Amino acid sequence: MSAKINSSFNRSFAKAFSWRLVATFTTVVIAYFATGRIDVALEIGFLEFFLKIGVYMLHEKAWNSTSYGLKVERSTANTQSQEIERPSSTIASGLVLAPLIAEE
After folding, report:
1. Is the pLDDT of residue 49 over 80?
2. What angle do CA 41, 43, 44 make, to 5 degrees?
């Protein structure tokens, strides 16, 4: 029995976009303290915001193409771990897999 978890392009984009908001704010603050100029800090933040969305999505998709480090614990008479083959989504919190490993 294998488990397959699908992640849409829109989900990956929403995750990338929300992270970029947080990370860009951090970059702007650092750039301001480094340069003392808000115009330069905002320019740096603007450029890195768009560039890093694409970089993040490529990184996420690369990790989605491997099963490295992902295991599903199944509750049966024989408790065993199985690696998921080529998942299509990263599982950060394990919440997505909870229904798959819950006792039936």
Report:
1. yes
2. 65
CA–CA dist 33, 31 (Å, integer): 5
Question: Encoding tokens for residue 67?
Answer: 């099963």
What is the average pLDDT value for the chain, to the nearest integer? Answer: 76
CA distance 91 to 15: 13
Q: How many CB atoms lie within 10 A of CB 75?
A: 9
Range of 49-53, 71-75, 98-102 with top mean pLDDT: 49-53
Beta-strand runs (E) in 47-89: 71-74, 80-83
Coil, helix or strand for 38? helix
Alpha-carbon torsion 26, 30, 32, 33, what sign?
Answer: positive
Q: Tokens 């990184």 correspond to what residue?
A: 59
CA distance between the termini of the chain: 15
The enclosing H or E element of 73 equals strand 71-74
Assess whether pLDDT exceeds 60 at residue 101.
Answer: no
